[in-house]
Amino acid sequence: MAGFGDLRAVAGDLSNGTTTSVALTARALEAAQAADGQGGIVFTRLYAEGAALAAARSDARRAAGAALSPLDGVPISIKDLFDVEGETTMAGCVAMKDEPPAPMDAAVVARLRAAGMVIVGKTVMTEFALSGLGLNPSYGTPLGPWQRENGRIAGGSSSGAAASVADGMALAAMGSDTGGSVRVPAAFCGLVGFKPTASRLSRDGVFALSPSLDSVGPIAHTAGSCAMIDHALTGEEDVPWRAAPRLGVPRQYVLEGLDAEVAAAFSAALERLETAGARIVDVDFPELEDIPALGAAGGFSPIEGYAAHADLFERIASRCDPRVMSRFMLGRAASSCAYAEMIDLRGSLIRRAGDRGRDIDAMVFPTTPMVPPKLGDLQQDEAYTVANGRAIRNAAVANILDRCAISIPCHTPGSAPVGFTLMMGRGADRALLALAEIVEATIRGA
Q1: What is the mean pLDDT of the chain?
Q2: How many angstroms separate the CA atoms of 172 and 197, rounded?
Q3: Are residues 114 and 70 in the same domain?
Q4: How many angstroms separate the CA atoms of 367 and 442, rounded?
């Protein structure tokens, strides 16, 4: 992946003519169409002809000195829940094939096009984004790069998004994150996943799962790459970071039951940061212990997802993944009183958590408490349910508390992939991205 990862380097190569969009896109499409690759599983739609044409137009713009942005010509994939004008948005479910086509591009897709980015295809996902594991019985389940021969999964629900980047089928991907669906697959695939503040990027034209928790964000090889995509989508500039960071490690919840590999990698990352001058402090965060109570009635996603798509689900339920649909049916059964109590509890959590860590720059913790499980170990419903709960446990904290968060790799090359989360308050996105670049460089020894 050398030379095909960091978008700032790629943008520089495009600007000075060292490479072209046609060359980058051809390379991505070659990987997507390779007979021995996963492209047939990763993409629900591959825009081979359209991407090649968009790349040629990008190169023509650059030759005329009219590049739309520094990312003009960069290949990117989009998750299968983003609307594309004239296409049915499948949301990972083949039963959606007869639904009406989208009347226009999703707002995020329109912004990617406005920046000149080349959309290579739509990527597979858990049906309707309701899982942190990324399994899809209809399209297939992408595997991550670590121990692929043993069937280790890529994570979800943005499974194809992460796999497309990890396997060189795109330089970056856009996914959605309701309880970790960008950051979990990023962690499992050794990539960077950024969950913005939920209200920051428009979700117009995005198949809704949970209006309370949904957000959309990028997966890429570096924090700087995510910052570039965020700038293209929002126009917001970098926030300079000069001081040594003060990082808080919550005492409760997020460090419980860690796999040995996760605990070791996270501890080693903290040591590297402290050696480099960061201040690492324990933070008492008892509010985190109240988060599981939000799932007592089934959780926000099944309840709000069913409410948003009740007519659709009643029509197609028998043709959907039964594991996914059974959770939505639990949402259907939830009482309005139970849902109102969940709303109140979440609001209380956000308010009470507001004062935690005021003297630190960011909270840090492992993105997931586990290493990527084997697909073969998830065939039984009980094992699947337990693994899914573990996968999203830590990542969902940022969604529940309405904060921004980013996962960066903290493992040594060749070992089990482990994500290192930095979480800041609502609206602190550009500061988070700036700090993440510093932390990433320290952890990776750059």
Answers
A1: 96
A2: 19
A3: yes
A4: 18
**What CATH number does residue 177 fall under?**
3.90.1300.10
- 444 in any annotated domain: no
**Amino acid letter, 265:** A
- Pairing outcome for strands 246-250 and 279-283: parallel
Q: Which residues pair with 303 in a beta bridge?
A: none
Give the pair of three-digit tokens for residue 399: 């969604």
Contact 171, 24 (CB under 8 A): yes
Give the integer Cα–Cα distance in Å for 131 and 323.
Answer: 9
The pLDDT tens digits of the residues spanning 31-50 come to 999 999 999 999 999 999 99
The structure tokens listed for 364 are: 């840090």
Do 21 and 99 lie in one domain? The reply is yes
Mean pLDDT along residues 249-256: 97
Whether 216 and 284 share a structural domain: no
Q: Does one domain contain both 200 and 286?
A: no
Q: How far is CA 206 from CA 20, 43, 201, 428, 436, in A?
A: 31, 18, 11, 23, 27
Say how far apart CA 158 and CA 144 lie, in whole Å. Answer: 12
Q: Which residues are annotated as catalytic?
A: 79, 157, 181
Quote the longest CA-to-CA distance of the chain: 61
Beta pairing, strands 118-123 & 75-79: parallel
- 275 with 141, same domain: the answer is no
- Residue 166: both structure tokens together: 């990890």
Domain membership of residue 150 (yes or no) is: yes
For residues 63 and 150, state if they share a domain: yes
- The residue range of the domain holding 40 is 7-234
Predicted local confidence at residue 297, as pLDDT: 75
CA angle 248, 252, 255 (to 5 degrees): 80
Read off the pLDDT of residues 390-439 as tens digits, 9 standing for 90 and up.
Answer: 999 999 999 999 999 999 999 999 999 999 999 999 999 999 999 999 99
Grade residue 4 by pLDDT with cuts at 50, 70 and 90. Answer: low
Q: What is the pTM assigned to this prediction?
A: 0.97
CA–CA separation, 100 vs 93, rounded Å?
Answer: 14
